[in-house]
Design a protein that fits this description.
seven-stranded mixed beta sheet; five-stranded mixed beta sheet; alpha+beta; 10 helices; single chain
């Protein structure tokens, strides 16, 4: 098995030239089974540059990056009605033009974000990602906005491709990225959380959704990375986890939701190397961090909760497990036709909906690449967002660039409206400030959301550090 849990023989197919066949790994197959046009399974990444890249050179650099990471050059292979597996067909070259340059216009970034949240790249054309170079009149620089289909690859893999494209564009190799953060040795199992192990978790309470529309809503903002107390055992990721739990708990109280059910927050863990050898695809494993109703109540002590959360996340990261757990492996075993397994998986997903985690926090951490595009400049900000499909309906995603934290909240339009998203963003920044070791207040800067919402958050003004973002 490779780091992407590919079947035997798939590693050879990953090697390069077109014509290879790669059976879908477990994560890809489950995502493919549950494809829903009303809730597109997309990941969006936007890289803000101070300048504008040359179109021809950028296209050449992206083409070179795809060639260096041939596992991204795939399309779903046609199959018969009794096929036992989905399979990727490695094409060796793109089927379509990946890079586009929409006309510069007011609101162009909002429009591009809206497309990223509602229009997934097709799985039947290689590669299942696109890049829009977005400019607006009167705004310096540009935004490289990637949209990828999550059934094919994830955010960290796309960032690796973007880093390779930057190196090729600038004509020089970037520094060797530090290895992914590893969990310190911890207990064999996380400490038990009373009432949170087996019961149905709390759901994010419904707000005031707007008119029905495909895709998700989103709001983004820039904050200072919270500081840790000297010698603190927790990481910035733990601070983000506590802020997420307290935000959802407070939101539910404001909406009058019952206070009894515990929260469970899904957290992706990525153990892949970050260098040019990084396996491309869906390479994270998911763990769930529980919180009892008492821990997230109105009188919750953020410092004590940080200590407990650090114990839980350290233990969870240290326990090896399949990406989606053992059941997913059984569901994808090729013993009956894939069409039959697809129906069974969708039915099980509906039945298991009440036990799905409350929300998801995906923290890329400090961006490990300079993303230096030469004459177009180095990335000044990187936002990304994970899909917010029901029954969770809300995701929190973060990354850190230049000592600043870039937060995106994304939600299902059947659960929340734009005003709800703005209020959740405010709650999060307040709860994150409460975990800050400097205990100093300040103001962050806001951004537009899914073409519709603008956001302005509050955070700490004290000098920030990326240390321990993971």
């Amino acid at each position: 098995m490779t780091a992407l849990h590919e079947p035997a023989g798939a590693a050879r197919a990953r090697g390069g030239a077109g014509g290879g066949i790669v059976p879908f790994p477990v994560v890809d197959e489950i995502a493919r089974h549950c494809t829903d046009p009303a809730e597109p399974d997309t990941v969006h990444i936007e890289i803000h540059l101070p300048g504008r890249p040359d179109p021809a050179r950028l296209r050449e650099a992206v083409a070179g990056a795809l060639a260096r990471h041939p596992r991204v050059l795939v399309r779903e292979r046609a199959r018969g009605p009794y096929a036992l597996r989905y399979a990727w067909e490695l094409t060796g070259a793109p089927d379509t033009e990946v890079v586009s340059f929409p006309p510069a216009a007011p609101g162009a970034l909002d429009a591009a974000r809206g497309r990223a949240l509602a229009e997934p790249p097709p799985l039947t054309a290689s590669p299942p990602l696109r890049l829009e170079v977005v400019e607006e009149p009167g705004r310096a620089g540009c935004v490289l906005l990637f949209t990828l289909h999550h059934a094919a690859l994830d955010g960290p893999a796309c960032l690796r491709i973007a880093a390779t494209a930057a190196e090729l564009y600038a004509g020089e190799a970037g520094p060797v990225p530090a290895p992914a953060a590893r969990a310190a040795s911890g207990p064999a199992a996380p400490p038990p959380v009373p009432g949170a192990a087996y019961g149905r978790p709390a759901r994010v309470a419904a707000g005031t959704p707007g008119p029905s529309a495909p895709g998700n809503g989103m709001t983004v903002c820039e904050l200072a990375v919270p500081r840790r107390e000297p010698g603190a055992p927790y990481t910035v990721n733990d601070q983000l986890m506590v802020a997420t739990a307290l935000t959802v708990a407070e939101w539910n109280r404001l909406q009058g939701a019952p206070a009894g059910p515990p929260l469970r927050i899904t957290m992706p863990v990525d153990d892949r190397p970050r260098g040019p050898e990084m396996p491309i695809g869906n390479g994270t494993r998911l763990v769930e961090v529980p919180f009892s109703a008492e821990e997230t109540g109105p009188d919750a002590d953020p410092r004590e909760l940080l200590r407990r959360t650090a114990e839980r996340t350290r233990a969870l990261k240290a326990v090896p497990r399949p990406p989606l757990g053992s059941l997913a492996g059984l569901l994808t075993a090729p013993v009956v036709p894939v069409a039959v397994r697809a129906k069974a998986t969708r039915a099980l997903r509906r039945a298991a909906g009440p036990w799905t985690s409350t929300t998801l926090l995906s923290n890329i951490g400090r961006i490990p690449y300079p993303l230096d595009f030469g004459d177009a400049g180095r990335a000044s900000a990187v936002w990304f967002s994970a899909p917010a499909r029901m029954p969770r309906g809300l995701t929190f995603t973060t990354a850190s660039t230049g000592g600043r934290l870039h937060l995106a909240l994304r939600w299902s339009r059947s659960l929340l409206g734009d005003a709800d998203g703005a209020r959740l963003r405010e709650l999060f920044t307040e709860r994150l400030a409460a975990t800050d070791g400097s205990a100093t207040g300040g103001t962050g800067t806001g951004g537009t959301a899914g073409g519709r919402t603008a956001g302005h958050g509050t955070a700490t003004d004290a000098p920030a550090t990326d240390e321990g973002v993971r």
